[in-house]
């Protein structure tokens, strides 16, 4: 019985970190949607735009990678929240970097459902998320 109690003793912390992580996913969705000139949700939900789904999915994965590193390496909830906001900023910067350097017409291409553009956007987002996560493991 003691082993069971020991095993579930961290359940409260898990629930708190998990709930905050879900809130961060929502915050990321809102911020990322403000940064991108195209409306991902509309493109995915109403127009079944594959390029938008791939790009946005990659952005979510990249952000989640960074957020998971923040949760793993944080010393407390405040530290986690600070690094969670850093992750939101870094992932938003990834889109801006792609848009203003390598693919200036990325948004137009996503709107036109060019799958190759969605794949590049997803790959860039995941790459930035991995780098972001690694840099948070101080």
Keywords:
138 residues, mainly alpha, 7 helices, 83% helix
Short description:
The chain contains 7 helices and no strands. The chain has helices at 2-8, 11-35, 40-45, 50-73, 77-102, 106-111, 115-135. The N and C termini lie far apart (37 Å).
Rg over alpha carbons: 17 Å
Helix content: over 70%
Number of domains: 1
Biggest sheet features: none
Mean pLDDT: 92
Q: Gap between N and C termini, in Å?
A: 37 Å
Structural class: mainly alpha
Task: Please give the count of helices.
Answer: 7
Shape estimate: elongated
* Percent of residues in β-strands: under 5%
Count of extended strands: 0
Protein architecture, described:
It is built from seven helices and no strands. The model has no long low-confidence stretch (mean pLDDT 92). The longest helix is centred in the middle third of the chain and has 26 residues, at 77-102. The chain is mainly alpha-helical. The protein has helices at residues 2-8, 11-35, 40-45, 50-73, 77-102, 106-111, 115-135. The protein has one domain (2-135).
Topology (SSEs and partners):
Elements: H1 2-8, H2 11-35, H3 40-45, H4 50-73, H5 77-102, H6 106-111, H7 115-135
Helix pairs in contact: 2-4, 2-5, 4-5, 4-7, 5-7
